Amino acid sequence: MLTSANDYGTLPFFRAVVVFTESWREPQKMNMSLVSRIALGFVVITPLAVGPSMVAHASEDVIKIGEVGSTTGSEATFGVATHQGVDLAIKEINATGGVKGKKLKVILLDDQGKPEEAATATTRLITQDKVTAIIGEVASSRSLAMAPIAQQNKIPMVSPSSTNPKVTEIGDYIFRVCFIDPFQGFVMARFAAENLKVKRVAILRDVKNDYSVGLAKFFTETFKKLGGEIVVDQSYSAGDIDFKSQLTAIRGTKPEAIFVPGYYTEVGLIARQARSLGIKVPLLGGDGWDSPKLLQIGGKAMEGAYFSNHYSAEDKSPHVQAFIDRYRKAYKDTPSGLAAMGFDATMVLADAMKRAKSLSSADIRAALAATKDFQGVTGRISIDQQRNAVKPAVVLKVVNGAFSYESTIRPG
Amino acid sequence: MDQFLQHIINALSLGSIYALIALGYTMVFGVLQLINFAHGEIYMLGAFAGMYAIRWLRLEEHPGIGSLLIALLAAMAASAAAGFVIERLAYRPLRKSPRINLLITAVGVSLFLQYTGQLVFGSDPQFFPTGILELEGYNWSYGDLVIEPMQIVALVLAIILMVVLQYIIFKTRLGRAMRAVSFNHDLASLMGIPTNRIISATFMLGSALAGAAGVLVGLIYPKIEPLMGTMPGLKAFVAAVLGGIGNVTGAVLGAFTLGMAEEFLVGYWVPTYRDALAFGILILILLFKPSGLLGVHRAEKV
Q: How far is residue B161's CA from residue B153's CA, in Å, rounded to a whole number?
């Protein structure tokens, strides 16, 4: 087997063929259907246009870090915000001397929000750009497509905000700096039962989305344990625009709150349609809501909704405020939770690289696994046995068209 | 009971959206026997054209029916122009080739528009300015039953457009020419009918309808994105086939049937099968009654 697609030098066509055939060779590991593999065939054509100019030149004094994110596609907010956080962290690390005397360089590839593109991008970062570590992805479904490739090549991968438990279960090179779905489901269930004091909750989940299904499952478990009742469990598919039939069915069961653990792309419309059907109970959700588009699309209908998130910009601790100041200077905008997670993922990775005995994959992996009480913007981060971060979550409320801090819920 | 009636209202509103898109689909098919898979993308272009018209002309500052009409006209004009260009550049050069070539080209045009749309408009969803009509809070409610004004507007518009189309096709010179072209291109041109012009006009009319649908959908579901046309386009295609493709009344009937079927499936049974249902209907209808509910069987010309 060819060790590297780079052996072909600057012949982009061959690279594309290699990427494509590699994806055919191990269909089980890639976990892709025939259709996605055929789609991938089309996808590899796209980078051809970029061609040789994208081939990175190996250089001794930089450490290359790959990043995969959805900077276009219907969840572009996720990729863009995360990358801004990553970029800010890289600049700060380089300004303070880099890692082991070397500067960090991030190579960002866009996956357009598609798992199959994320897989292709990962293969490309590893075989072609020869990155030392990978940061990505935001969405669990995409991280799940990337992780087997990183694991197989023994390249440490740090997901900033994929909360589905399966992501780090793929192997010992896969880490994350966020909490996991059981915890997010747990947080909102506890918030509903203890802070809102509701007993009857309806669920409306996105069945096409691992993240949404996971949150709904763990919410149900905790909420039932706390004595609550799930009155109805409805679902939709990402991309739908009409949710009135589900909402009409939910309305009939008279819930006291509705848990909608989807992405902002649909939640805005769901909120609008719920309100127009006369449903007045609060909507609850997870960090997939974290986008200004949520408020734009949902408008007044979002008022009074609650969702769990990684951090709040209203947090008064000095290191959070310092981060927000620097971010505002760089991007003229308040950082979202995802930007903060991108920042933390990069910082945790750089910290591990500094502590590692050498820059070999195995040493960086060991140092990442030993991360303890790292003071990030999104809380103190410790990596546990399952390579997940243990940290608190915040609950935010939509008030007057802005996200305002409501409460902090700790693990356990 | 309230819940059942609410489902009916939701279904009628959903059906009128499908109907608005299906009308253009079915008309283009009726004349050209071409399934214009780019129709859903023209509907997307219409929605974006409407949004930009509202933004540039600051229509939100003067809410009312006038502003709605301006936005509709802008969207219809932009869509008609797009339809004209697509027909001229992509379909006309292939008019003498086998029908399958045209079909593949249509799929290509559809993908081209989707990805160009992502480049030009950006792929993050955008908010459609609903402020041009001050309707928020004007819902009619009767007990638990809620009817939104926009639902009525969409329903009424779908029916009006259906009647207008029927009138154009069966009572005007243009319509007679369209039917002649539909019957036989070559013969029609021998009779002195400007075939090319008639086909262009058909495309523009069908595309304008899609553009109008784009604006209405934008107002009802104020989230628009470059890929928004794919699924509604396919659903409208199913509706058109269900009603009998090429038949204007059939398209509307098919759209309402599909709306009802989806609404009750989701409301009372398994929401996950929503899209599967539409394509299941397509398969069944093609197997058992390929001419559709109201379609007339055409003898194949040999």
A: 12
Backbone angles phi, psi at A65, to 5 degrees: -115, 130
Residue pair A103/A353 in contact (Cβ under 8 Å)? The answer is: no
Which of B2, B123, B145 is the best mutation test for A, with the most CBs of A within 10 A?
A: B123
With a cut of 70, say whether residue A29 has pLDDT above it. Answer: no
Residues of A in Cβ contact (< 8 Å) with B139? 276, 278
Nearest Cα neighbor of A269 from A285, A293, A252 is A293
pLDDT at A54: 41
Average pLDDT, chain B: 86
User: How crowded is residue A46: how many other Cβ atoms within 10 Å of its Cβ?
Assistant: 14
Contact A65, A105 (CB under 8 A): yes
Strands A133-135 and A157-159, how do they pair? Answer: parallel
CB A23 within 8 A of CB A119: yes
Low-confidence ranges of chain B (pLDDT < 50): 300-302
Within a domain: B129: yes
What number of C-beta contacts closer than 8 Å exist between A and B?
A: 91
**Is residue B245 a part of any domain in this protein?**
no
Options 2.120.10.30, 3.30.450.20, 3.40.50.2300, 3.30.1330.10; CATH of A182-309: 3.40.50.2300
Q: Do B13 and A244 touch (CB under 8 A)?
A: yes
State pLDDT tens for residues B210-245.
Answer: 999 999 889 888 889 998 998 888 899 999 889 888
State whether B124 and A293 contact (CB < 8 Å).
yes
Q: Where are the domains of chain A?
A: 56-179+329-390, 182-309
Chain A residues whose beta carbon lies within 8 Å of the beta carbon of residue B278:
none
Q: Return the pLDDT at A259.
A: 95
Q: How far apart are CA B151 and CA B204, in angstroms?
A: 26
Q: State the Cα–Cα distance between residues B271 and A204, nearest whole angstrom.
A: 10
Rounded mean pLDDT, A121-135: 94
A74: nearest CB among B7, B227, B275: B227
Residues A165-183 have a mean pLDDT of: 90
Cβ of B223 within 8 Å of Cβ of A265? The answer is yes
Instruction: Examine residue B133 and state whether it is found in any structural domain, yes or no.
Output: yes
Instruction: Check if A56 contacts B (Cβ < 8 Å).
Output: no
Q: What are B's interface residues with A at a Cβ cutoff of 8 A? A: 3, 6-7, 10-11, 13-14, 118, 122-125, 127, 136, 139, 141, 144, 146, 148, 217, 221-223, 225, 227-228, 231, 262-264, 266-268, 271-272, 274-275
CATH superfamily of A56-179+329-390: Response regulator (3.40.50.2300)
Q: What is the pLDDT of residues A213-256, one digit of tens each?
A: 989 999 999 999 999 999 999 999 888 888 988 899 899 899 99
Query: A377: distance to nearest CA of chain B, Å?
Result: 27
Number of domains present in the structure of chain B: 1
% of chain A beyond a pLDDT of 90: 52
